[in-house]
């Protein structure tokens, strides 16, 4: 009897914890009327080492600082290294060919307007503990597990 | 009345007749110091940020843009003011630049860039003038602080070290070739080498 009650309590706790983990309302660690201490601002990775992509279509992350890079109607600082014309001199990876396509799939001479704002998809990385656990699994891991 | 003027004129045209050599020498020396000091002080005043941002054209356009850049606010608190980059430090070049800049007085009087629209429309021309100036003097104003001799490549990121130890070191490129738009927003860059 006693052990059954313990199991029920434990199960209940586990369920509550599970429910909490799935429905996160906030990552704020303080009551609403309390001003929490902000976390330290972390340094942006600047080592030019490529990270693995989590899935094939993932936009590659930016392995360097991009502070004050101007991206507007006048200038695109990213493209001064990553455009087709510039990569020979800069030795930076060229933006993929999809960036030179319009929505009908026609190839353009210059970067497509719909792919112009680089940091809508490509972002810098910082080395911090994520506020939430990421349960993403690599497709290769899933396949390997399925094969077993 | 006429007599008085004549008397003064005689004293001015042949002062040595009326004043002692000692007085004239000493007087000349003192006046020289005052004039020279005054001239330089006035010129130095035109190099201050207060003077530069005294006009809304500078205060609301370029000075506003400067404030978010590393040349205005940064970890060590060392900053560049307008004249550090836009006026040569040594005297002869400074005078030459100041004479060129007298055109800006004209621009101010006739309101060449007195609205945001006029400024934006003229930005490419203004920027090009500065790029050309820095290209011609091998980025002298950059190098007044960023001295190549004392650059430690090991403290730079790999990309920076590669560029600085090759293209910059052999004189093929100068600072402004790559570092455009670091203190102010860029104009339309179409057709600019390295951007298009």
3D architecture notes:
Chain B: Belongs to the NapC/NirT/NrfH family. Chain B: Pfam families: Cytochrom_NNT. Chain B: Keywords: Cell membrane, Electron transport, Heme, Iron, Membrane, Metal-binding, Transmembrane, Transmembrane helix, Transport. The complex is a heterodimer of chains A (about 150) and B (about 200). Chain A is mainly alpha-helical. Chain A has a domain at about 45-125: Flavocytochrome C3, Chain A, domain 2 (Orthogonal Bundle). In chain A, about 25% of the residues lie in helices and about 0% in strands. Chain B is mostly helical and about 200 residues long. Chain B has 2 domains: about 1-45, no CATH class; about 55-180, no CATH class. The longest helix of chain B has 25 residues, at about 20-45.
Q: Number of helix segments of chain B?
A: 11
User: What is the total tally of β strands of chain B?
Assistant: 0
Q: Give the helix tally of chain A.
A: 4
Uncertain residue segments of chain A? none
How many domains comprise the coordinates of chain B? 2
Secondary structure elements and their pairing?
The complex is a heterodimer of chains A (148) and B (196).
Chain A: H1 2-22, H2 79-82, H3 87-90, H4 139-147
Chain B: H1 2-13, H2 15-18, H3 21-45, H4 49-52, H5 56-66, H6 82-86, H7 91-110, H8 116-136, H9 140-143, H10 158-168, H11 175-178
Name the descriptors:
heterodimer, A: 148 residues, mainly alpha, Flavocytochrome C3, Chain A, domain 2, 26% helix, extended, B: 196 residues, 2 domains, 11 helices, 0% strand, elongated, transport (chain B), heme (chain B), transmembrane helix (chain B)
Task: Please give a quick description of this structure.
The complex is a heterodimer of chains A (148) and B (196). Chain A has 148 residues and is mainly α. Chain A has helices spanning 2-22, 79-82, 87-90, 139-147.
């Amino acid at each position: 009897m006693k052990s059954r009650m313990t199991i029920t309590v434990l199960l209940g706790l586990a369920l509550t914890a599970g429910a909490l983990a799935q429905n996160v309302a906030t990552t704020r660690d303080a009551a609403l009327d309390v001003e929490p201490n902000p976390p330290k601002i972390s340094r942006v990775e600047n080592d030019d080492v490529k990270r693995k992509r989590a899935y094939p279509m993932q936009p590659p992350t930016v392995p360097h600082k991009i502070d004050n890079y101007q991206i507007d109607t006048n200038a695109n600082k990213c493209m001064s290294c990553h455009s087709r014309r510039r990569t020979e001199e800069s030795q930076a990876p060229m933006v993929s060919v999809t960036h030179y396509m319009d929505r009908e799939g026609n190839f353009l001479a210059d970067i497509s307007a719909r792919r112009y704002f680089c940091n809508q998809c490509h972002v810098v990385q910082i080395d911090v503990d994520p506020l939430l656990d990421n349960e993403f699994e690599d497709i290769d891991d899933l396949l390997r597990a399925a094969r077993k | 009345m006429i007599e008085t003027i004549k008397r003064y004129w005689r004293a001015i045209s042949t002062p040595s007749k009326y004043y002692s050599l000692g007085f004239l020498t000493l007087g000349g020396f003192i006046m020289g110091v005052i004039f020279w000091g005054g001239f330089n002080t006035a010129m130095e005043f035109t190099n201050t940020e207060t003077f530069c941002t005294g006009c809304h054209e500078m205060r609301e356009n370029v000075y506003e843009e400067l404030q978010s850049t590393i040349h205005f606010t940064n970890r060590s608190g060392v900053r560049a003011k307008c004249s550090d980059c836009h006026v040569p430090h040594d005297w002869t070049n400074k005078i030459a630049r100041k004479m060129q800049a007298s055109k800006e007085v004209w621009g101010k009087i006739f309101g060449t860039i007195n609205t945001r629209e006029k400024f934006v429309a003229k930005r490419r021309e203004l920027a090009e003038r500065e790029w050309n100036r820095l290209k011609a003097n091998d980025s002298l104003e950059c190098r007044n602080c960023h001295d190549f001799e004392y650059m430690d490549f090991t403290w730079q990121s790999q990309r920076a070290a590669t560029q600085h130890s090759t293209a910059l070191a052999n004189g093929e490129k100068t600072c402004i070739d790559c570092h455009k738009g670091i203190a102010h927003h860029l104009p339309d860059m179409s057709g600019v080498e390295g951007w298009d």
